[in-house]
Amino acid sequence: MNAPRIVWLRRDLRLADQPAFCSAAAQGPVIPVYVLDDARAGERQLGGAARWWLHGSLKAFGREVERHGLRLILRRGDCVKQILDLVTETGASGVDAIRHYEPWWREAEEELGRQTDLQLHDGNYLAPPGLVTTGTGSPFKIYTPFARALLRLLPLRDPLPVPAITAPEAWPGSDSLVSWDLRPGNPDWAAGFRDAWEPGEEAAHAQLDDFVERADAYEEERNRPSVDGTSRLSPHLQWGEISPTQVWHALDGQRGTGADTFRGEVIWRDYAQNVIHQFPRYPESSYRDVFERFGWRDPQKSESAAADLRAWQRGRTGYPIVDAGMRQLWTTGWMHNRVRMIAASFLIKHLLIDWRHGERWFWDTLVDADYANNGVNWQWVSGSGVDSNMFPRIMAPLSQSEKFDAAAYIREWVPELAGLEDAEIHDPADSRRRNGYPVKRIDHKAARERALSAYRAAKG
């Protein structure tokens, strides 16, 4: 029997359209391996919500590979050392993996590639970052021309089927998934996660099938948080339980504005990776210098700012649409996309708190927390990014709530206000705020004037 190949898994927990599996299976027996390496990511180790999802995804993936006669090997510690140890233990001829672009994974790939045969494959994006360039060969910085250029190339390929896989003659030792304690015990804060989500490749395809049937209405319904109008594919894509190539081909034949809008959002995911490929630390610092000297209210130095940040995190700002979103996030690990923008804008421009505080909160509380998407989206809202909304364009949460018909959404997540009529639930008078629901942390007009004044001061 040929020497086995190790498939090093990270955010690519699927068998179909998995180029690393296909390459390894063509060369010999396959040993799939996941290494939990918190130290390498440093401050970017997985947040609590992501760890919850990872447990479910690994459990589902383990069941899937068992159907093909394989075992999922789990190891914990330095990923390079653990993989090299497994190469020695198993006599593997080398390692196959899907290429990742987060800075800590790029460093790990370089280190591992110097010490063993590491074959890296593209497969987590529609096109590998660096492929789509301007006429002069430079990477795009702005989304719209990037999207146009990528659309001219798509689709690059068809999805790959699950390959014929051979098991090795002997298996190395493995950690038990339960021993990693990825899910909370006492207290168990994830009860709402279990009601909202089912991780895994099979669940990802079921969700995709459901969305394809609703794609025609996507353009009209995606901004309305009270209806099931979004795809809810983001965590499945984030963990690689389904590939964007599979999603793209599933939409074949869909020619309406809804499907086209969704295709643009799948391309945005590629665009975000294109950004961190150019600027690896993009989620850590503002692209535009003016925001590095901006007069942010610092929660570490100001008790009032700290209190505002806590109120935002807990859904106690006094703005129903913002509070509904933040409570949905805490309860389910996910927030409706339109509400994400409203809540992010509120933290940055109403409370005048640095976008990085929000980015890190989302990193810890989102099941779909993605290094590139999270950083790019927060910098877009703040106006600090390479391609972003202008800071003076300040979302009005009260009118946004009414415009996008969020009354039912507010009733679900802010039950204190459930008895109010649609006409008043978006902005209830102080006398109509019930069951301890708070007054506004700051008036919208005053917040807008303060934000614009701070922006003018920062620009000099």
From TrEMBL:
Needed cofactors: (6R)-5,10-methylene-5,6,7,8-tetrahydrofolate; FAD
Enzyme Commission number: 4.1.99.3
Broad enzyme group: lyase
InterPro entries: Crypto/Photolyase_FAD-like_sf (IPR036134), Crypto/Photolyase_N_sf (IPR036155), Cryptochr/Photolyase_FAD-bd (IPR005101), Cryptochrome/DNA_photolyase_1 (IPR002081), DNA_photolyase_1_CS_C (IPR018394), DNA_photolyase_N (IPR006050), Rossmann-like_a/b/a_fold (IPR014729)
Domain Photolyase/cryptochrome alpha/beta: 3-126
Keyword field contains Lyase: yes
Keyword terms, alphabetized: Chromophore, FAD, Flavoprotein, Lyase
GO MF term (any one): deoxyribodipyrimidine photo-lyase activity
Keyword Transferase: no
Protein family per UniProt: Belongs to the DNA photolyase family.
Protein name: Deoxyribodipyrimidine photo-lyase
The species this protein was found in: Novosphingobium rhizovicinum
